[in-house]
Amino acid sequence: MSPHGPRMVGQSGASGLPEPDERLREGLRALKGLGPYLWPRNSVELRVRVVAAVALLITGKIANITIPLLYKRAIDTLGGHSAAAPGIIAVPLAIILAYGAARILSQAFNEWRNAVFAKVSQRAVRQIGLRTFRHIHALSLRFHLERRTGGLARAVERGIAGIEFLLSFLLFNVIPTVFEIVVVCGLLWRLYNWSFAAITLATIIVYVSFTFLITDWRIRFRREMNTRNSEANTKAVDSLLNYETVKYFANEHHEAERYDMALRAYERAAVRSETTLALLNIGQGVIISGGLIGVMLLAADGVAAGNMTVGDFVLVNAYLLQLYTPLNFLGVVYRNIKQSLTDLEQMMSLLEVAPEIEDRNNAPALDVKHGAVAFHHIDFRYDTRRPILRDVDFAIAPGETVAIVGASGAGKSTIARLMFRFYDVAAGAIEIDGQDLRDVTQDSLRRAIGVVPQDTVLFNDTIYYNIAYGRPGASRDEIEAAAHLARIHDFIAALPDGYDTVVGERGLKLSGGEKQRVAIARVILKAPKILIFDEATSALDTKTEREIQASLAEVAAHRTTLVIAHRLSTVVDADQILVLDGGQIVERGHHRELLARGGAYATMWTRQQEAAAREALVTID
Ligand SMILES: Nc1ncnc2c1ncn2[C@@H]1O[C@H](COP(=O)(O)OP(=O)(O)OP(=O)(O)O)[C@@H](O)[C@H]1O
Ligand SMILES: [Mg+2]
Q1: In angstroms, what CA-CA distances link 615 with 397, 543, 558, 607, 610?
Q2: Predicted structure pTM score
Q3: What confidence tens digit (pLDDT) does each residue in 222-258 have?
Q4: Measured between alpha carbons, how far is 122 from 266 in angstroms, rounded to an integer?
């Protein structure tokens, strides 16, 4: 690890945090949360590994501390201080061999310890990552709509990097170094006198305080660098995402200028950061050399006075250098520990967010026998200040189809979302087969309903995967049958890669209508008791739509179905049509009843028929 290394874990995101010190304190609290993972109750093997790692750590340190002692013995022997003439050759040989062995052991135990502990720390990383992932999925839709997904993913990624860093450095670097300092100071005190220990300790204290102080001051440049760096990244990504737009307006030069502006700021901050790093390193060097001079002067004095040997003189020097080596990286380690604690806290605080919608204690699974759906006088609002649904009251008998029509923003999709219990209603109750949605598990509820959403988003995987998502484990035949019903099989079969075609991010490589048909196939495969089609065929041309309508009617037969549609021609056969306006049901009945009433529905119908007739004329021309 080098102090110049630009890409240390976890340091990429100090920017934008309001109160770093406050967060740091929180981070220390979050550190306690790691405890259970380091002493896993359910795994004897991992606990044995922890004990072994600590034992190896201590043994390694002791070997390390004996190195200078053996060195001193060798020098003294060679210098003839314990000058018993016979065996003068044999004795240093043993000491030198012991010296070599101690060096090897010190290093080998260090590595061995890392190897033994790797499984513990990696298991902790995996479990915490998994727990966070599960938790984020458990959080409610509102939380996800309010947070940027990229930000969430980054918080988790950094948190995990932070854990890795903290485990390896705090546990096996900082704490052992403190241990070594204490032991060495004690040794110096016992072997010689307290002034050696005092100078060593004082040097370390000055060194550490100086490093912390300068590092805290330097953090702002680091932070500036990170902010500018992510700014430049955002600009670059945004610009590349808008590739087409950039070309439409021939604005490449403008884009480059904007990018360079961010780069320039980064350059300035980076130069400042490196300049101040040099300052830090020089200061550290001065302090260490000062300490060394002090101790060596004392030792030289002792040698001159005859109460210390040349070996002792070398010993104190060797100890000090050995102690200071790990401190070389203290600035970086300190900054990264701080950063890692902050990142850890951010991730742990995600774990503390309670889901808005939670299952009731011991909630039973939804028991769908017939599939009767009932909305009892529902009031709903996303934001308390703005009512969306008012007194919405309707029922769908088992196996029947109810259609909801109405202007954009009337609240149609909201009704679909409420059936999935993404939100709880403000007043009234939604029931399936007489069971209030709030009394059953969300999992069982969502298994019972299938939806073709208004905006279909696909996974960036193959078409096969996306259809199979409706029922993981379905056979290839079942998947192709569903694709047939959704009128997409022929299209897929004609693709060069067939079912293995990758659909691109969010499914953007498919047209709107193709995506809709994949979504329909997916729901057909799921084959739930209750179906919701939210503008499921809105992106299709009339001919394909008519074909799919036939399949959908087939699928929907004997299933309770809620259809949301703009094109009224697709709902004429519904058992009941609800006209929603401003969150209220203003008309309801069969198609013919509603036409006869001459109300809002009739007006909409006439307008759409006229438009269709005009279109037909244009096509004939
Ligand atoms: N998550 C949300 N937070 C706040 N308001 C929302 C949210 N989702 C929807 N709304 C608002 O609720 C109202 C109803 O939205 P909804 O999606 O149900 O309309 P819709 O009838 O499906 O319209 P469209 O025909 O355009 O799909 C809209 O005015 C919309 O702005
Ligand atoms: Mg909608």
Answers
A1: 37, 14, 35, 12, 9
A2: 0.77
A3: 888 888 888 888 888 888 888 888 998 899 999 999 9
A4: 34
The three-class DSSP label of residue 555 is helix
CA 335 to ligand 2 center in whole angstroms: 49
- Tell me the CA–centroid distance for residue 536 and ligand 1, in Å: 17
Ligand 1, atom 9, lies closest to the CA of 414
Domain for residue 411, yes or no?
A: yes
Q: Could you tell me which of 338, 337, 399 has the C-alpha nearest to residue 368? A: 399
Domain tally, the chain: 3
Residue ranges lining ligand 1, Cβ < 6 Å: 145, 382-383, 388, 408-414, 454
Instruction: Give the nearest ligand 1 atom to 415 CA.
Output: 18
Domain shared by 100 and 213, yes or no: no
| Shared domain check, 522 and 488 | yes
What DSSP letter does each residue of 462-473 carry, written as one string? BHHHHHHTTSTT
Task: Tell me which residue has its CA closest to atom 3 in ligand 1.
Answer: 382
Residue nearest to atom 19 of ligand 1 (CA): 409
Residue 464 and residue 591 share a domain: yes
- Residue 422 and residue 508 in one domain: yes
- 253: containing domain: 193-307
323 lies in a domain?
no
551-577: pLDDT as tens digits: 788 888 889 999 998 888 888 889 999
